[in-house]
Design brief:
The chain is mainly alpha-helical.
Length: 161
């Protein structure tokens, strides 16, 4: 219907998406990077290696080909205790590596957040809530608060059913 430049929308039904895990991915990624001082490629590499269990350097380099080039990435992740040696080289058997407990714990935590667990809003456990946070940290902090409110609301609604 038209009346003097005003359009009325036709009533429609909206199908709620069954999967929306990634709705807050950007916020969660920003928070993890800030908290653990990881770059986006490093985080993506850890996410890839999480399901690889044990891997060799060739497997690491194969996935690294799709990332921005950084020569010392493997050595740095090894040095900073994100990956460690699972088995040293034995004869013609290559050295094998795995994610450290710290890396596995962080990836597990990311999945929990994507599945609806709240992010802490305290300065001692979240660098985005410190008094000296940057402008962008404060923008993401506000989004975390909104995200947590949404999660609480969803949890409350599901308990009513």
């Amino acid at each position: 219907m038209k009346s003097k430049g005003v359009y009325q929308r036709k009533a429609t039904s909206r199908i709620t998406p069954s999967h929306n895990y990634l709705k807050y991915w950007r916020v969660i990624r920003y928070w993890v990077k800030a908290k653990y001082k990881l770059s986006t490629p490093d985080l993506e590499m850890l996410l890839f290696l999480y399901s690889e269990d044990i891997f060799n350097k060739d497997q690491f380099k194969k996935y690294e080909e799709v990332m921005s080039w950084e020569y010392p990435r493997f050595a740095r992740l090894l040095r900073d205790d994100w990956i460690h040696v699972w088995r040293k080289r034995q004869g013609n058997k290559a050295t094998l590596y795995e994610l450290t407990y710290k890396a596995k714990r962080i990836i597990t935590m990311i999945y929990k957040k994507l599945n609806g667990e709240e992010i802490a809003e305290t300065a001692h456990s979240n660098p985005l809530f410190r008094n000296d946070a940057s402008y962008m940290d404060k923008v993401y902090r506000n989004t975390i608060i909104e995200m947590n409110d949404f999660i609480k609301q969803q949890r409350h609604l599901s308990q009513e059913l």
